Amino acid sequence: GSDLTLQSLKDTQILIDEYFGTTLTRSIFHGQHALDGLLETTDAKFKEELSHLLSLDIWQQATTHARSKQREMMREVAKLDGMIALRMQDLEQAEKKLTTAKQYVDKRKIEVE
């Protein structure tokens, strides 16, 4: 796509209206400094506005799917955190063994000299 952003929000909104006419009567252009609109409103207001564009069943299905995916990802994060904790313990034990081995080698060097 091409960037069709114009000099002002009003001009850009007019261009959007010209391109889409009445098919997207509820579309609004948000410039980078004007995000005080729909995405910052309450959930109820967002759903009300969204219901004019698509069935709320679709919104509810998407929400259910997103929550399910979030739970799945949180379980995966917990699993990976556990694996990291175990590997950190393994690393700590290996570092202790290395320190002990170095001390033994240093002691043997002194005895040999």
Features:
single chain, 113 residues, mainly alpha, 69% helix, elongated
In short:
With 113 residues, the chain is an all-alpha fold. It is 69% helix and 0% strand.
Helix content: 55-70%
Query: What value does the Rg take, in angstroms?
Result: 30 Å
SS-derived structural category: mainly alpha
Shape: elongated
Q: How are the SSEs ordered, and which strands pair?
A:
Layout: H1 9-20, H2 43-51, H3 56-112
How would you characterize this protein structure?
The chain is elongated, with a radius of gyration of 30 Å. The model has no long low-confidence stretch (mean pLDDT 80). The termini are far apart. With 113 residues, the chain is mainly alpha-helical. The protein has three helices and no strands. 0% of the residues are buried.
